[in-house]
């Protein structure tokens, strides 16, 4: 498995006193990566990617976000993912995240490719572990049909700032 090295990551967190009024908060990020892999497939033909995101979060756990990256396949050069979901803290160790995401490929989606698609997801978190399930009725590309993706992830913080 190829290790993807994030070269530069800058994250800005805007407080409620700034851009968005309480009970909302917002955040964004910019990442420069050596390669953009999605579910085991390079989206940039083994080349670098610049990626950005912005999210608006409500104190009740609701969120809306947009994430984008350059890509190198088909007719397009960009992926734009729009999501809406909700997080629940079940207790101090357990959390649940459920939502919908639309994967969009401006200039790359047409009747022939059918790249744009919607996906529902659920992620159950326990401490540093995450079990995820994604479901789609019409997965990426025409004639692919129904799709599900099961994932198990582990996250470890390497440094702590603050």
Automatic annotation (TrEMBL):
UniProt keyword terms in alphabetical order: Signal
InterPro entries in the cross-refs: CHP02001 (IPR010239)
Signal as UniProt keyword: yes
One Pfam family this sequence matches: Gcw_chp
Signal peptide as annotated in the record: 1-21
Protein name: Uncharacterized protein
Organism listed in the record: Pseudoalteromonas nigrifaciens
């Amino acid at each position: 498995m190829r290790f993807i090295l994030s070269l530069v990551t800058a994250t800005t967190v805007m407080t409620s006193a700034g851009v968005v009024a309480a009970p909302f908060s917002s955040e964004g990020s910019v990442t420069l990566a050596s390669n953009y892999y999605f579910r085991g497939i390079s989206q940039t033909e083994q080349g670098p990617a610049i990626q950005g995101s912005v999210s608006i979060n409500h104190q009740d756990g609701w969120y809306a976000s947009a994430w984008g990256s350059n890509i190198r396949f088909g007719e397009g050069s960009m992926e734009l993912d729009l999501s809406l979901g909700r997080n629940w803290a079940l207790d101090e160790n357990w959390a649940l995240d459920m939502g919908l995401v639309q994967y969009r490929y401006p200039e790359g989606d047409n009747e022939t490719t059918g790249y744009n698609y919607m996906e529902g997801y659920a992620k159950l978190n326990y401490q540093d572990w995450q079990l995820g399930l994604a479901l789609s009725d019409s997965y990426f590309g025409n004639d692919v049909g129904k799709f599900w993706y099961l994932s198990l992830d582990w996250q470890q913080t390497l440094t702590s700032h603050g």
